[in-house]
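From the methods appendix. Each design record in this collection lists the tokenized structure first, followed by the designed amino acid sequence. Records were kept in a plain field format so they could be parsed without special tools. The example shown here is representative of the layout used throughout.

RECORD:
FOLD TOKENS (352 positions):
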């Protein structure tokens, strides 16, 4: 994997105030029959582009893949190809994709591999893609119809190599919005994400990037099952400029099966990432803060689960290194939750 600079690239953001309607009138993330009722103009790709390839890794995503593909099909910017990489699914997901290949207008390509994890599945799709731009989407998430249109406009205007968006978190069963994540200062958001003090950028469903630039990297880190999106974003911002559109253009589903809920894997992968950078290159005080936050996060998680001895060992390391993190980490977590909820409430994000 590529190296990392000690400085932080200033990432640009599109001001939210330019599109005050975006929260109140977004007809996004509807059931299939509601999708078909939305009539929006489609921006076609010219002979020289921009062609967009969509990559969706799928492992036992049969419950969600139809809705994800419906949101891709409704894009106002034409999709050149949609590549679904079946990561060894054992459910009905592949059959649903083949059915939509037969009856739908979306240019679908189903690639089957043995189960190897989301990183390898994404890399497989990226290698197979032929569009000028590559957009990522998780099998359990959905897009607002003008997501690609707005991102293509922004990425071409700014000459950035990658563009992300704000996203709404919604409950899988109730469909109620649990909050909105929007980065006002993307450079600061990335730094806090690395320190476990901020929300992620959700690039596995929000990001679109230039294929010419991704070829300069080695794709997603296949050694990581959690945090691979963070590692990938760090390497991308060393290659060029990243921008974000603060409009809510993605719906991120929350459910119990999500990988980031397995805190043991989180600790292992984040520790590996800190060694890989290495984190000390970003400053010794910052490195101490990151490692203390990780120990505090794991320690509190172990304590909640009743593993008192191991929790005490982790929390003791925080006391020795940076004791204030025992207070600031849960305070940041509470602040994030309140901020997400307040955005979802005051900005009138619809219940999908």
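DESIGN:
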């Amino acid at each position: 994997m590529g190296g990392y600079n000690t400085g932080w690239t200033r990432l640009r953001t599109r001001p939210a105030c330019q599109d005050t309607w975006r929260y109140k009138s977004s007809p996004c993330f509807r059931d299939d029959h509601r999708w078909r009722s939305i009539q929006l103009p489609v921006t076609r790709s010219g002979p020289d582009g921009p062609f967009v390839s969509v990559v969706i890794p799928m492992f036992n995503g049969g419950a969600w893949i139809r809705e994800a593909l419906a949101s891709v099909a409704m894009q106002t910017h034409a999709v050149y190809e949609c590549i679904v990489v079946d990561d060894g699914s054992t459910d009905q997901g592949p059959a649903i994709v083949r059915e939509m290949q037969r009856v739908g207008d979306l240019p679908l390509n189903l690639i089957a591999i043995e189960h190897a994890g989301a990183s390898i599945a994404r890399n497989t799709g990226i290698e197979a893609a032929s569009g000028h731009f590559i957009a990522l989407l998780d099998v359990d998430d959905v897009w607002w119809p003008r997501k690609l249109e707005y991102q293509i406009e922004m990425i071409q205007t700014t000459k950035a190599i990658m563009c992300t968006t704000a996203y709404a978190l919604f409950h899988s069963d109730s469909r109620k919005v649990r909050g909105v994540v929007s980065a006002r200062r993307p450079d600061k958001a990335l730094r806090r994400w690395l320190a476990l003090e901020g929300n992620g950028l959700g690039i596995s469903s929000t990001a679109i990037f230039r294929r010419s630039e991704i070829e300069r990297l080695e794709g997603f880190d296949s050694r990581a099952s959690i945090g691979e999106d963070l590692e990938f974003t760090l390497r991308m911002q060393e290659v060029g400029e990243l921008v974000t559109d603060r409009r809510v253009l993605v719906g991120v589903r929350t459910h119990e099966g999500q990988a980031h809920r397995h805190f043991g894997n989180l600790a292992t992968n984040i520790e590996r990432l800190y060694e890989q950078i290495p984190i000390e290159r970003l400053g010794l005080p910052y490195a101490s803060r990151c490692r203390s936050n990780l120990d505090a996060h794991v320690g509190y998680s172990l304590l909640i689960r009743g593993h008192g001895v191991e929790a005490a060992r982790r929390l003791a390391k925080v006391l020795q290194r940076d004791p204030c993190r025992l207070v600031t980490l849960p305070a940041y977590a509470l602040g994030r939750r309140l901020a997400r909820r307040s955005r979802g409430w005051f900005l009138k994000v619809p219940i999908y």
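APPENDIX NOTE: DSSP finds 13 helices and ten strands in the chain.
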